[in-house]
Amino acid sequence: MFSFNGLAMWVDLHQGILFCQHYDLFSNDSGFVPFYFVDLPPGCCNDGITTRPLSDSYPPEMYRSIVCVGDSIKFVTIEGYLRDSTAPIEDRMVTMWSLTPQESWSWRKDRGLSIGVIWAQLYKKISICATMLEPMPNMAPQSPILSTEDGSLHLLIVNDNSNEMLENQNIMVTVDMSKGYVISACLLPTDFGDQLPGLYGVMLPRMLGSNFFRF
Where is the DUF1618 domain (predicted)? Predict the structure, then answer.
């Protein structure tokens, strides 16, 4: 739930946004509050038919995020989690959408960036990755965190142990989706997840967007 330009909003990352006016919610003497609903962008709703059933789905926080940035609402989704995909991981897309209620209640696609492109740029940000990670390992990003400050996107890449050189090290990547390039990347401490089992799946999706991982 969040507040945006006089609107109270409840988000279902599988379906869309339910919202109403603050004034109606707190000052309506009749007891009737009109609610409205806007679907997620095309192809992003979980219908249980062309998508995985909810009972078999990944937690939406694992591959989606939605926040307010300036006068827009930003939504990001990572391909391969909602639907089964036969596409190689490097061809799957990380896509950002914008919704600007002052202009329209229709989503606008900002940019789609392939996981392969993200990995190619990641090598240049962490020099050790160029020797340790090539060829590209079978690891997809997850737990997207959108910054409420500038809309930059933080992605977590959890080592699946297919690359012995990393020895359980994980990678945090920051991406400027508006320009389509990786701003920064860093290796997370090797003992962080060992000391706190489940940390990456539980805590990181709930972190507030910030500039912390840029440095």
Answer: 10-150
| pLDDT tens sequence across 89-124 | 889 999 999 999 888 889 999 999 999 899 888 877
The distance in angstroms from the start CA to the end CA of the chain is 29
Q: Is there a contact between 78 and 141 (Cβ–Cβ < 8 Å)?
A: yes
Cα dihedral 22, 26, 30, 33 sign? positive
Nearest to 58 by CA among 144, 116, 184, 119: 144
The model's pTM is 0.81
Check if the beta carbon of residue 176 is closer than 8 Å to that of residue 162. Answer: no
Q: How far apart are CA 188 and CA 182, in angstroms?
A: 17
- The Cα 215–Cα 70 span in angstroms is 23
